[in-house]
Amino acid sequence: MTTYEDSIRTRLAEWERGLLKQPGLLERTSKSIQTKINEKIPAKIHAALTTAVKGIFSTVLFTLDFVPKSLPQTGLTLQQRDEKAVEVVNTYKKIAAAEGAGTGAGGFALGLVDFPALIAIKMKCLFELAHLYGYSTRDYRERLFLLHVFQLAFSGRDHKVRVYRIVRNWDEVALQYPEGEHALQTVDWEKLQQEYRDAIDFRKMLQLVPGIGAIVGAWANYGLLEELGQTAINCFRLRLLHGG
After folding, report:
1. CA–CA distance from 10 to each of 160, 167, 240 (Å)?
2. Which residue, 67, 93, 173, 211, is the most exposed by fewest CB within 10 angstroms?
C-alpha cells in the first residue's frame, strides 16, 4: 500500500463516520423547516418535478446516451485517478453553475426546466468518473451503482445509511441482481424521486424567487455538483481499495 492510499483509507474512515453518525440539532431543525416549506409548495409543482426526475433517469438507465465514448481508464494509480477526477468535477461544477444561472434568471417556467437539465449534468459527470476509475457504464450493473452513488449524495439520513451499506458491499450486492436490463426493474423509483426532491427542494425552490433566481441557481447547482463529485470519488475509492 502506498502512502497516498493509506491516507485515503484514513479519510474514507472519517467520511464513513460522518455518514453514519446521528443527526445533530442543527440538521434536525433544518429538516423540520424544509418539511414545512415543502408542505406549502403546490402539489402541481411536486408532480412536475416527479415527472421530470423519472423521465431523465429512465433515459439515463435504459439507453446508452450517457455512456462516454472513451474506454475505461487502465494503468493509472489511485492518486492519478483522483487528480483527474477533481478536474472532471470542477468542469461539471462550472457547467452546472452556468445552467443554473441561466434558468434561474428565467423565472418559474425555466426554473422547472432546470431540474431535469441538472440531473442530466450530474449523471454525465458520474458516467465520466466511472470510466476514469476503470468501470464500464455499458454494464447495466455499473449504471445501477451510479444510481446508488446519486442516492447516497442526495438522500435523507436514514436512506443514506442504507444506501451506503449497499455501496460499501457492492461487489456482493451486484451478484444478486438479474442480468441485463431486468436489473433496472429493481429500482424503487418513487423512493428515489422523493428522497432526491426532499434533499434539494429547499435550495432549488429559492431559485424560483424573482430577483434572486440567477444567483441562487448558480450557487445551488455549483454546490450540488460539489457534493455529488466528492461522494462519487469516495465511492470509487472504496471499490478500488477493496479490490472491486
Report:
1. 21, 18, 15
2. 211
Taking the C-alpha atoms of residue 133 and residue 199, their distance in angstroms, rounded to an integer, is 27
CA distance 153 to 86: 17
All cell numbers assigned to 83:
487528480
Mean pLDDT for each consecutive 10-residue tract of the chain (244 residues)?
89 92 60 62 70 76 86 95 97 86 50 71 95 93 91 86 92 79 68 71 53 60 90 96 76
pTM of the predicted structure, to 2 decimals: 0.82
Kindly give the residue spans of alpha helices, DSSP state H, lying in 105-188: 107-132, 140-153, 157-168, 170-174
Neighbours of 89 (CB within 10 A): 20
Measure the CA–CA gap between 47 and 202, rounded to whole angstroms: 16
Tell me how far the alpha carbon of residue 4 is from its chain's centroid.
Answer: 26
